[in-house]
Amino acid sequence: MNLIELHILQSFPVTCLNRDDLGAPKTAWFGGCQRARVSSQSWKRAIRTLAKEKTPALFAGQRTRFLLRALEEAFTNKELDKEIAQKLAEITADSLGKLDSLEKGNVKTLLFFSPQELENVVTAVLQTEYDVSLQMILTDHETKKNKENAEKALKKMTDKAVKAMKGKVKDNADIAIFGRMVADDHSLMMEGAGLFSHALSTHSVSNEIDFFSAVDDNNTIGDEGAGHIGTLEYNSACYYRYIGLNMDLLNDLDHLAHYSEEEKKEVVSSFLHAALMAVPSARKNSMFGFNPPAFAMGLRRNGQPMSLVNAFETPVRSSKGYIQESSKLMMDHWTLLMNTYCLEKDVDVSTSMPDNNLEEFIQNLL
Fold first, then answer.
1. What domain range includes position 91?
2. 107 has pLDDT over 90
3. What is the DSSP letter of 188?
4. Which of 11, 183, 340, 342 is the one with CA 20 to 30 A from 46?
5. What are phi and psi of 199, to 5 degrees?
6. Cβ distance 74 to 119 under 8 Å?
């Protein structure tokens, strides 16, 4: 397996980057003590969003349940009558994601697709012999039985047409990296080329409680007490996180093989930039957790993916902060793994920040 790997250390004071069901920062037990944690899903969304901002033409995927409105618009843009467009959108949405609420316009589960993929589906539907069945469905004087049979026949057509979502397009790099899960139609699934760990603090962490109060601006001299009081939880942590990119999978026929070499480089460059710079946006206005990585090691190598989190199985204890000690432990652990498992011969590129700036770091890995 040809890999690009990022091993990132990132320190955040007073944040709640990723909350659990009670609103507290997520945690995990590791090495016999509680650690701060940010789920891979949380950080993946931040990365995907930033990559889309940076390169919208290649990272155009959207993950949504509100599929019906997008399909209606696409069919309407083909100059179809509104009633015909609505009915085709309804049945096509049901083929893609099982229609949940016609009134709300959503399907039962989130579906990840790009505009060009959806356009392929719409085109495929319009290339079927849908006219006869659709007219029977929309005609008032037809019997209920005939309408049901016509709807079944049309559904068979759209079931086949939605396979066009697997067609070759040039705006689905995010789907190729992050993957697509379609429970109702495994043929539309795409295995993601990206590998993401949960971010875990390199040291022991206990969540703390912030008591806050708000002053009522219209209080008079005789009014007592706060306008509002409450509590919320936060923590402060130096996180280790791993991100890998399976280049063999990314470049295969089911992913980005049809992209030009320049387009592939742009995809990887934008992804690496987002992977390093994106931060989950929770409490962005009240705690401001936009801290870039303090240290990162990047590798271009062959072999199986390998996390360095066990460098911190014994939690870091330091009176001088965690970044310096964590980076030393991480690099020592990498040296140990290289020597123990004879990995050095498989490493093509090794680079780090801040020894290199961001652009140099990314360029070294391309």
1. 63-170
2. no
3. G
4. 183
5. -75, 135
6. yes
* 104, pLDDT greater than 80: no
The whole-model pTM stands at 0.91
pLDDT tens column, 303-331: 999 999 999 999 999 888 999 999 999 99
- Same domain for 47 and 105, yes or no, is no
Side chain identity at residue 146, one-letter code: N
Q: Count up the domains in the chain and report the number.
A: 2
Q: Evaluate whether residue 71 is within a structural domain.
A: yes
Task: Please indicate, yes or no, if residue 19 is contained in any of the structural domains.
Answer: yes
Q: Is residue 223 part of a domain?
A: no
Same-domain pairing of 149 and 261: no
The pLDDT, as a whole number, for residue 97 is 84
CB atoms within 10 A of CB 121: 23
In a domain, 224, yes or no: no
Provide mean pLDDT across the span 157-185. Answer: 92
Identify whether residues 110 and 233 lie together within a single domain.
no
pLDDT > 90: percent of the chain: 71
Residue labelled with tokens 């290199």: 356
CA dist 299 and 264 (Å) reads 18
Q: Which residues pair with 212 in a beta bridge?
A: 230
Domain boundary among 120, 137, 170: 170
Per-residue pLDDT of 33-70, as tens digits, reads 999 999 999 999 999 999 999 999 999 999 998 989 89
The full DSSP string for 262-292 is HHHHHHHHHHHHHHHH----TTTTTT-----
CA distances from 167 to 10, 106, 171, 259 (A): 39, 24, 11, 13
- If asked whether residues 265 and 207 sit together in one domain, one would say yes
What is residue 52's three-state secondary structure? helix
* Distance from C-alpha of 29 to C-alpha of 22, rounded to nearest angstrom: 18
For residues 109 and 249, membership in a common domain is answered with no
Residue recorded with tokens 């699934």: 189
What are 210's two structure tokens?
A: 């912030």
Six-digit token string for 130: 């849908």
Higher pLDDT, 247 or 103: 247
Tokens coding 51: 């990559």
Say yes or no: 245 and 112 in one domain.
no
Query: 159 and 106 share a domain?
Result: yes
- In three-state secondary structure terms, 337 is helix
On whether both 95 and 244 belong to a single domain, the answer is: no
| Dist. CA 20–CA 30, nearest whole Å | 18
